[in-house]
């Protein structure tokens, strides 16, 4: 048998990197003018606001490029261990203002624009969000990129360049309408196409087996179809450093422009069709948060980007390391760490084995040792509907060789388990990578756990629950493999950029060190007792609420009272997040106001978030919110005391206005369901008080800010389990609580849907007969907590004092802290300053 041509490692000669000489950049004002002419071909008079956005972006980009090139050079030259963050989602948002801020040229840019008679704020509005993610998981990946660059961690992100990102939501007749997100329509100044960085990705075909010279069985993947992955690079500038890391996003291109067979048959259209089918792989982001559909195209997306990334990672490694003997490969885990953001990229474990064993012909067990030292896996959810599995049939058709590899991994794993826990057949069934009970499926989470050296949950509670429930068996089999890294958010985007007023106030008090070292923010603690500081803090909040109110009026036509309590719940719409519980409170308040109760604190309840297009109940909840808003807002008996708004198309750029304008942060998921949450952190960092359950990172927020500075309510995780185990009867709560009964009856009887009285009966029936997320069990406790919130808001000084103490105690929730944890405990990498660029 012949050796496949591609199987021998091709050691590259080590070439000395040549420094690229970059011309000195002039003042930004000049750059703006030049780019208007040379990049946009516009005179200042003819330039549209979008042209000014383009000119500003090009001008800032020029400053990124120099550091970007030098960062890459310094990694190449010094060869530090690198981290590769693999994620199917990066919810980046806008780039211009963030890049200008991180590079420290924000003020210069603003002044340059001003001098030319243009407003930077206007220009910024012309940037379409890069919405390559669903929600928290994708935004976490974006925050982590910011922190890794800021902390000089040699790192790169890998993902997919979706042509269409998260759908754009509009509300028509109260209902969600999904519109395609054609975010690349006007081009993307922040990406660089790399036609030279392409890889062949194989699908389908079959496996042939034959003995090699030593008589061992060799497997070879043949007759596969090919797709090309082409790289697009996006710069990730760190804050207050010269490090600019890389985010590499893959786009699918047809391997051949046209299939000549069809062409010769005269079937031109068929040829074009096939080309389109191939390129569909990177066409659109799947808009499902916390649930999976098992669609073939989704698995194709996962393998497509993972294979391209791993080929790229190995290519980079081999370009500077000569593999003369097998032993030379031992340094691979000392040079690369791969983090799997959820199970979406977990086929990477099999792909790395494929590359090492089939392509580079390393012995199986030697390769496996390397793989486990390289990979680490972050789990994001305990919810069964979110755990990815693929039928063996689908997986085997798409990736026949990888299915064989997974069988082999599983065989050896089960053998090991059986050795340590002899005779426990049920244990073997439970932990097997192949689920034999549901029509044979590949369990991607099990592949990720077995193939990683470390598995982390994303908040203390979540990680404990992982150990005691979902991964309890694995915790016995691999003691110490399971750990926790609590999520974080980047203070650059979520404080500095989103809330310049608060940032300036803090900076005036304690200096600017907190931006890069959030532990310093603790220094504002004594200022909570300083009346002048409180006044200034309250003024900033008011200005942010005015900014938000103006935006809401423009979008929805609803005029808000900025002195009312802004009570905000913004996140994906999901039953477990319990937007519906919030609605029950809104209607309770409405009834109290109509009954003429005195002393009710005026409130504005703001909702925002997208529902997965196929998630009927979530969409129905959006409709209910809008129907309730219509009735409440038009009721003259209510007036200014209560307003309800649904903010359409919640996305990162909207979040940047919503968080700073919030007084109250709604974090009310059923205990044990929200892995961490990061919206809770953004809220508190912007001076909103939290009303929440003891769920996810709320638990740790409470620990940091103190019990007296947060509104906790509801059942705890063990209590939820108890209630469910002892035959939960939601109807008992309905029968024994007259306020609750009135609210549910109104919804069921069509009070908010006069044109179709039965519209929401299904929601109420579901609550009375099932109530999986225990809304009725938590209702009374929630209302009581909301009453405390309302009372406190009337004591503005006390409220502001508490808000300041929340901000002061947010250090733990910086993504810099999280990345430091990953770097030390999981990746074993150290910062590598881009010394070359230092001036
Ligand atoms: C932070 C963020 C999320 C996550 O919010 P949670 O409240 O943690 O679910 C989702 N979407 C966007 C746009 C965000 O900025």
TrEMBL record:
One term of GO molecular function: pyridoxal phosphate binding
PTM annotation (N6-(pyridoxal phosphate)lysine): residues: 682
PROSITE patterns from the UniProt entry: PHOSPHORYLASE
InterPro entries given in the database record: Glycg_phsphrylas (IPR011833), Glyco_trans_35 (IPR000811), Pyridoxal_P_attach_site (IPR035090)
Catalytic activities: [(1->4)-alpha-D-glucosyl](n) + phosphate = [(1->4)-alpha-D-glucosyl](n-1) + alpha-D-glucose 1-phosphate
Cofactor requirement: pyridoxal 5'-phosphate
Highest taxon above the source species: Bacteria
Key words, A-Z: Carbohydrate metabolism, Glycogen metabolism, Glycosyltransferase, Pyridoxal phosphate, Transferase
Gene Ontology terms: biological process: glycogen catabolic process
GO cellular component, as recorded: cytoplasm
Its EC number(s): 2.4.1.1
Record family assignment: Belongs to the glycogen phosphorylase family.
Function: Allosteric enzyme that catalyzes the rate-limiting step in glycogen catabolism, the phosphorolytic cleavage of glycogen to produce glucose-1-phosphate, and plays a central role in maintaining cellular and organismal glucose homeostasis. Phosphorylase is an important allosteric enzyme in carbohydrate metabolism. Enzymes from different sources differ in their regulatory mechanisms and in their natural substrates. However, all known phosphorylases share catalytic and structural properties.
Name of the protein described by the UniProt record: Alpha-1,4 glucan phosphorylase
Organism: Methylotenera mobilis (strain JLW8 / ATCC BAA-1282 / DSM 17540)
């Amino acid at each position: 048998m012949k050796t496949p041509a591609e199987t021998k490692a091709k050691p590259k000669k080590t070439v000395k990197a040549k420094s690229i000489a970059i011309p000195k950049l002039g003042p930004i004002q000049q750059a703006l003018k030049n780019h208007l002419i040379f990049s946009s071909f516009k005179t200042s008079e003819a330039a549209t606001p979008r042209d000014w956005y383009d000119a500003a972006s090009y001008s800032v980009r020029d400053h990124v490029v120099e550091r970007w090139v030098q960062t890459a050079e310094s990694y190449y030259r010094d060869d530090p261990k690198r981290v590769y963050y693999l994620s199917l989602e990066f919810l980046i948002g806008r780039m211009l203002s963030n890049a200008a801020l991180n590079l420290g040229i924000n003020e210069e840019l603003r002044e340059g624009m001003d001098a030319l008679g243009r407003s930077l704020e206007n220009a910024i509005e012309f940037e379409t969000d890069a919405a390559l993610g669903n929600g928290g998981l994708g935004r976490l990946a974006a925050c982590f990129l910011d922190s890794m660059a800021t902390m000089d961690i040699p790192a790169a992100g890998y993902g997919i360049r979706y042509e269409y990102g998260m759908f754009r939501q509009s509300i028509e007749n109260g209902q969600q309408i999904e519109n395609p997100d054609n975010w690349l329509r006007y081009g993307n100044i922040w990406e660089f196409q790399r036609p030279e960085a392409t890889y062949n990705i194989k699908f389908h075909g079959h496996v042939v087996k034959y003995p090699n010279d030593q008589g061992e069985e060799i497997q070879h993947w043949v007759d596969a179809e090919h797709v090309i992955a082409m790289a697009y690079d996006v710069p990730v500038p760190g804050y207050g450093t010269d490090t600019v890391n890389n985010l590499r996003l893959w786009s699918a291109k047809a391997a051949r422009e046209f299939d000549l067979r069809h062409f010769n048959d005269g079937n031109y259209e068929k040829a074009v069709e096939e080309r389109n089918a191939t390129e569909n792989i990177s066409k659109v982001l799947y808009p499902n948060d916390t649930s999976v559909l098992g669609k073939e195209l989704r698995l194709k997306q996962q393998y497509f980007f993972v294979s391209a990334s791993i080929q790229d990672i190995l290519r980079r490694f081999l370009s500077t390391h000569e593999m003369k003997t097998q032993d030379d490969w031992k340094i691979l885990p000392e040079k690369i760490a791969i983090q799997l953001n959820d199970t979406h990229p977990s086929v990477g474990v099999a792909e790395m084995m494929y590359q090492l064993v089939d392509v580079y012909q390393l012995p199986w067990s030697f390769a496996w040792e390397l793989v486990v030292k390289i990979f680490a896996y972050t789990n994001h959810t305990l919810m069964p509907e979110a755990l990815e599995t693929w039928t063996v049939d689908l997986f085997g058709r798409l990736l026949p060789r990888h299915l064989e590899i997974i069988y082999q991994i599983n065989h050896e794993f089960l053998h090991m388990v059986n050795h340590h826990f002899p005779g426990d057949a049920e244990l073997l069934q439970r932990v097997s990578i192949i689920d034999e009970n549901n029509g044979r499926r590949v369990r991607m989470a099990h592949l990720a756990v077995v193939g990683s050296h470390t598995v982390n949950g994303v908040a203390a509670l979540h990680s404990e629950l992982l150990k005691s429930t979902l991964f309890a068996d694995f915790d016995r089999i691999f003691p110490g493999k399971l750990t926790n890294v609590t999520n974080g958010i980047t203070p650059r985007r979520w404080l500095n950029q989103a809330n310049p007023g608060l940032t300036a106030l803090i900076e005036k008090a304690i200096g600017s060190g907190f931006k890069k070292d959030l532990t310093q923010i603790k220094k504002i603690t004594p200022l909570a007792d300083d009346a002048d500081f409180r006044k200034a803090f309250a003024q900033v909040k008011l200005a942010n609420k005015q900014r938000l109110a103006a935006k809401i009026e423009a979008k929805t036509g609803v005029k808000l009272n900025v002195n009312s309590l802004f009570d905000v719940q913004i996140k994906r719409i999901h039953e477990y997040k319990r937007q519906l519980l919030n609605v029950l409170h809104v209607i309770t308040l409405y009834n109290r106001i109509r009954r003429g109760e005195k002393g009710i604190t005026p409130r504005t309840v703001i909702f925002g978030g997208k529902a997965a297009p196929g998630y009927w109940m979530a969409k129905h909840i959006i409709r209910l919110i809008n129907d309730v808003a219509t009735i409440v807002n038009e009721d003259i008996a209510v007036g200014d005391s209560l307003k309800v708004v649904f903010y359409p198309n919640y996305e990162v750029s909207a979040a940047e206005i919503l968080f700073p304008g919030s007084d109250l942060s709604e974090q009310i998921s059923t205990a044990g369901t929200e892995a961490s949450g990061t919206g809770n952190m953004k809220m508190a960092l912007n001076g909103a008080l939290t009303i929440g359950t003891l769920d996810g990172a709320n638990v740790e927020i409470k620990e940091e800010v103190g019990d007296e500075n947060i509104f906790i309510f509801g059942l705890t995780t063990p209590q939820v389990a108890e209630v469910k185990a002892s035959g939960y009867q939601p109807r008992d709560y309905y029968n024994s609580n007259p306020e609750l009964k009135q609210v549910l009856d109104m919804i069921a009887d069509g009070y908010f849907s006069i044109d179709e009285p039965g519209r929401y009966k299904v929601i109420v029936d579901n609550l009375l007969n099932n109530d999986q997320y225990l809304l009725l069990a938590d209702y009374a406790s929630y209302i009581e907590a909301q009453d405390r919130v309302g009372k406190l808001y009337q004591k503005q000084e006390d409220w502001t004092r508490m808000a300041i103490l929340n901000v002061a105690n947010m250090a733990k929730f910086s993504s810099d802290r999280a990345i430091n944890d990953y770097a030390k405990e999981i990746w074993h990498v150290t910062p590598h300053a881009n010394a070359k660029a230092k001036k």
